[in-house]
Amino acid sequence: MTANNKYKCVNCGEPCSALYRTYGPSVLKLTKCVACKGIVDKYIEYDPVIVMIDLVLMSKEAQRHILYNTDFKTFWKLFIILVMLETYAVWRSDSLFSIAVNTICDIKSSYTINSTNINLPINLSVPESWRNNCRGWVQDSKGDDSDLFIWEKDFYVQFISTFSGIMIFITTVHVLMNVLQSFATNNRVSSKRLLQAFSLANMSTLFALPMLVWGNTDTPPETRLVHYLLVFVYSFIVFCNVFTVLYESPMLITILVLIASNSVKHYTTFHMTPFLRGFVT
Description:
Blueprint: E1 7-8, E2 15-16, E3 20-24, E4 27-30, H1 48-56, H2 60-68, H3 75-91, H4 96-104, H5 128-136, H6 148-179, H7 191-202, H8 209-214, H9 221-247, H10 251-280
Antiparallel strand pairs: 1-2, 3-4
Helix pairs in contact: 1-2, 2-9, 3-6, 3-7, 5-10, 6-10, 7-9, 9-10
């Protein structure tokens, strides 16, 4: 995409030079795409609420509008907020990742508010090299008179671990997409646009908020598991759509890359958290 074609058609992704043309102080005409003959970006006339609804409905047209036809300058604020939200969920042992760790490592109690453990019909054998990391996820119970600094320090540790996992995820996606570029179109993606795309897709994790806010210790583990599974599936589909739009790659390649990247991310977080806790202790 050249400097003269800095926008993209929200329907087909064809680069274009302008979204509209002005023919006077009060006359404005939307540009038509030379490829699909449709309006390049219908969303420039829409209310932001309509755009947000279409984003929730996983519309690729709305995603292209945000990524290519708007400034989206505040993406870094959104990025930080969502990293903090994910950190809080894992630190609170109230996320799908925490449920998986608690179940695999057979953790039934924690110093945090929730420690959801699912009883599986089969016995999982944890590799010996992972057992020390499992013990690193177990924290001693603390009473109400505990030093708040200990809680705060552990939150910062979890933030560093979660942030490291997210950066590994973004890097893995970018590297694998570039490696597999021969199977896709030759579309170069800048680091800024990559972070914008991640922030846009990661907004899907906000659907975990109801359980984080209104869930309590009386909520059955199965209910938490179903809720977080639904949020994960929805989030995965959103990430597939956004990165397909960003890299213009086939959906199958995007799915495989996201599976690999998520595996690397969670592997990093699983091993990083016990290491950092042991380092700062």
